[in-house]
Amino acid sequence: MSTATNQPEPQPSNEPEYDCGRDDCDNSRSPSTTVAGSFCSQACATRHHGQHLLNLIRHDNRYCYTCFGRLKDVQEPTEKWRTRKTTPYEIALDQGACFEQASDGSIVLDASSCGYRKAIDPKSVIGYQYATDHATTGEVRVERTEGMPDDTRIGLICQCGSTDARVSEDVIRTANPRSTVRSLLTALETLREEEQHDKEIDGEVLVRKLRIHYRETGELDFPRAVGAAIQETTDG
Q1: pTM to 2 decimals?
Q2: Are 82 and 101 found together in one domain?
Q3: What's the pLDDT score for residue 10?
Q4: Contacts of 236 (CB under 8 A, 6+ apart)
Q5: What is the per-residue pLDDT across 93-126, written as a single tens digit (0 to 9) for each?
Q6: Angle ∠(223,224,226) on CA atoms, nearest 5
Q7: More confident residue, 145 or 209
Q8: Residue 36 contacts by C-beta under 8 Å, 6 or more apart in sequence?
Q9: Is residue 44 part of a domain?
Q10: Contact status, residue 159 vs residue 135, Cβ threshold 8 Å
């Protein structure tokens, strides 16, 4: 004769539920299951930290976010240039004035053609941009206001084939992974030298993480690999 043991039914949790801190995750978390402060899992925390670093490249118009190649060099203006641009005659020249020869042979500034455009504050000028060998010209998409169709114009594009430096074209990105990884490491090191972040990324660790994730999913998950490389370097 056997007896059945009544098992107590699981009680619903009274814990509040919160959204995961990773933008593209729809899972929820409770205080007892939260990882790293605001995430539903360690994988989400890892991807979030990696994406945070990659966003520095995405929002830096010097770089292509698909292959991480550098499209522009920026030369910072000198203090001499900034000072000169605050003088009245330089402001007038920027507004359309020109030098002319007077009847007595002297050179005078003719400001009669000034257009009274809004003057640019020299202190706000970041620098002069020059295209690198990694850039070329082609059609780029121009976003219009809501309800209006997008337009195109001739602008700077990447030689990798991407026409929007802020968007990741995964097919292009994975076509030459070695080159992509080299460019990524170079870009991250440049940004670290510029004190835009303080993370050290070991190239061998990054490649190893990419390979592990590729074997698991068949995809090159750069945010997760970068985040994992950050974590391993920090823990190590």
Answers
A1: 0.71
A2: yes
A3: 56
A4: none
A5: 777 777 777 777 777 767 676 666 666 676 666 7
A6: 65
A7: 209
A8: 42, 45
A9: yes
A10: yes
Q: How far apart, in Å, are the Cα atoms of 73 and each of 56, 80, 155, 165, 203?
A: 16, 21, 16, 15, 24
Are both 101 and 66 inside the same structural domain? no
Range of the domain at 189: 22-70+168-235
Contact 95, 83 (CB under 8 A): no
Per the structure, the count of domains in the chain is 2
Whether residue 138 is contained in a domain is answered as: no
Task: Based on the fold, state whether residues 218 and 108 are members of the same structural domain.
Answer: no
| Residue type, position 49, single letter | H
Whether residue 208 lies inside any domain: the answer is: yes
**What was the pLDDT predicted at 104?**
79
Q: Are residues 60 and 86 in the same domain?
A: no
What is the structure's pLDDT at 149?
67
Distances (CA, A) of 75 to 41, 100, 130, 187: 43, 32, 8, 17
